[in-house]
Amino acid sequence: MSDHNPGLRPWRDIARRQSRQIMVGNVPVGGGAPITVQTMTNTPTHDVKATIDQIRRCEEVGVDIIRVSCPDEESTGALKQIVRAARVPIVADIHFHYKRALEAADAGAACLRINPGNIGSEARVKEVVDAAKANGCSIRIGVNAGSLEKDLLEKYGEPCPEALVESALDHIKLLQDQDFHEYKVAVKASDVFLAVAAYMQLAEAVDCPLHLGITEAGGLIGGTVKSAIGIGNLLWAGIGDTIRVSLSAEPEEEVRVGYEILKSLGIRTRGVKVISCPSCARQGFDVIRTVQALEQRLQHIHTPLSLSVLGCVVNGPGEARETDIGLTGGGAGKHMVYLSGLTDHTVQDEGMIDHIVGLVEAKAAEIEAAKLEAESTDAGRAEAAE
């Protein structure tokens, strides 16, 4: 069922900041394009098989753009194979050696993550920009509170929003001086307050797309909470064009969390949105284990739809009215199933999870078939109009 209808519920509308649009390979970023989800591999880049395998796992959960570190020639040497195998654009992460950027651009990287102020002379900056132009690469400037320039730390005394923004503007100027404008910018910090304040200031100062992230956020639980607060706060304010959730967890988990943040704000949906209760003594079935099993079993569903799983009739029927499929616990191991908000049939404990999975799969197939039919009808009308 509809998650959000702009205008119908104005208290859910998000007025998105307008930015220029750039391309990262074939993926548009900014300028009203869908907010993209990124992650970064953690395998040695020169281990082509391991890196591609990890990229595949991220692709399966919906990653839009993926970054790989290129610290040495061996890594950039492997990049051509990785780019060829990947189904999504590859960003080459470069820190200090400008030659790695030149090699990565020639190897087919869609974007270079590099701070032009870190690579030396104006001539070197020009070389990198020329390579980016020649190969159709965009550039991502990545300012981080943990690696601010020494002069800015001396000027401000500590990492602060003004220092992060000044650093970003300095790097931007170096690209603009070379007449290069295909860039996006991040001003990350592990401190949520610092990161959010810096992004808000930067959003007022520039018109380029912004890459959001709370850097070094922590493990899966703590890092998810910090990222949801920081990234979610900014997205709710309309700021941000692409996101990366930085967790001490596998990259595919970062992608899942990124989508959950977007899903929670009604910005972008992928797969099943599960609404479930924390459970209590009233539950008619084991809600916690049921939800765990359903989330695992439904990972293959990419079609956006909603499922409510509540243990009793206190809130179950009300939530079920708002979801595509609902399950509410009843007595004597007999539970009510709702379809499109209406009571439909009951299900017993035995086989309940298999039954719900089947209903979700059928609903996803129905939605996809309707979408194909609508696209076919629209194409037919367009052809007739010609």
Descriptive overview:
Helix 2 (73-85) runs parallel beside helix 3 and helix 7 packs parallel to helix 8. The protein has two domains: 17-264, Dihydropteroate synthase-like (TIM Barrel), CATH 3.20.20; 272-371, Sulfite Reductase Hemoprotein, domain 1, CATH 3.30.413. The chain has twelve helices and 15 strands. The strands form three sheets. Strands 8-7-6-5-4-3-10-9 form an eight-stranded parallel beta sheet. The protein has helices spanning 48-60, 73-85, 98-107, 122-135, 150-156, 161-176, 192-205, 220-236, 251-264, 287-297, 316-320, 352-385, and strands spanning 22-24, 27-29, 36-40, 65-69, 90-93, 111-113, 138-144, 183-188, 211-212, 242-244, 272-276, 305-310, 325-328, 334-339, 342-348. The protein is of the alpha/beta class. A hairpin with a 2-residue loop joins strand 1 (22-24) and strand 2 (27-29).
Topology:
Elements: E1 22-24, E2 27-29, E3 36-40, H1 48-60, E4 65-69, H2 73-85, E5 90-93, H3 98-107, E6 111-113, H4 122-135, E7 138-144, H5 150-156, H6 161-176, E8 183-188, H7 192-205, E9 211-212, H8 220-236, E10 242-244, H9 251-264, E11 272-276, H10 287-297, E12 305-310, H11 316-320, E13 325-328, E14 334-339, E15 342-348, H12 352-385
Parallel strand pairs: 3-4, 3-10, 4-5, 5-6, 6-7, 7-8, 9-10, 11-12, 12-13
Antiparallel strand pairs: 1-2, 13-14, 14-15
Helix pairs in contact: 1-9, 2-3, 3-4, 5-6, 6-7, 7-8, 8-9
